[in-house]
Design a protein that fits this description.
CATH superfamily: Flavodoxin domain
Radius of gyration: 16 Å
Shape: globular
Helix content: 25-40%
Number of helices: 8
Strand content: 15-25%
Number of domains: 1
Largest sheet: 6 strands, parallel
């Protein structure tokens, strides 16, 4: 099984990374992980050039190829909340999924990617709602043909101002539930 992780966190040892590690420990040891850190990838946002209205694909060539090659079985979107939303570099990546819609609508290409499973990880300590981040993640999952159930495949620690993520018992239980839902078993390291 191959897992593609789109990590929207700028901190390699922060809250989001901690939950990613929890999840990794629950998956089978032969799982192949490929990571794309949105802050390091240099992926430009969609600039509405409309190339994809007349041509298959996107005129911008960058690390989005990791997503386009469609060789992964599970997509993990992970982000701290910035004003109730995913981080701007992660949103840049999500905005580039517009090519899928445009190619289908304007060029009538089937553009159907293989079915995948999805997990959403959100961390934050503010007083806002995670709903905007959940909605954009659901859009990304839909465009990429990812099965995602926000009641079961959503791992979070949203009170990090008061309870450090490493002391929050909920993410570990949520990771167990997501792995059980998507794969039928939980692996302890």
């Amino acid at each position: 099984m191959k897992v593609l992780v789109l990590n929207g966190s700028p901190r390699p040892d922060g809250d989001t990374a901690y939950i990613l590690q929890l999840l990794k420990e629950k998956l089978p040891c032969d799982t192949v992980f490929e990571y794309l850190n949105a802050f390091e990838a240099g992926i430009r946002p969609c600039d509405d050039c409309r190339y994809c209205w007349e041509n298959e694909g996107c005129r911008i060539h960058d690390r989005m190829d990791m997503i386009w090659k469609d060789d992964y079985d599970v997509l993990v979107l992970a982000s701290p909340l910035y004003m109730s939303f995913v981080t701007p570099p992660l949103f840049s990546i999500i905005s580039r999924l517009n090519v899928i819609w445009s190619n289908r609508y304007f060029l009538k290409t089937p553009g159907r990617l293989k079915p995948k499973k999805g997990i959403l990880i959100l961390t934050g300590g503010g007083d806002g709602s995670p709903d905007p981040a959940i909605r954009i993640a659901q859009t990304a999952f839909r465009f990429l043909n990812v099965q995602f159930d926000p009641a079961l495949d959503y791992i979070r620690s949203l009170n990090t101002n008061c309870v450090p993520v490493r002391e929050d018992p909920e993410p570990a239980g949520q990771a167990d539930a997501a792995v059980r839902h998507l794969f039928g078993e939980v692996h302890e390291s």
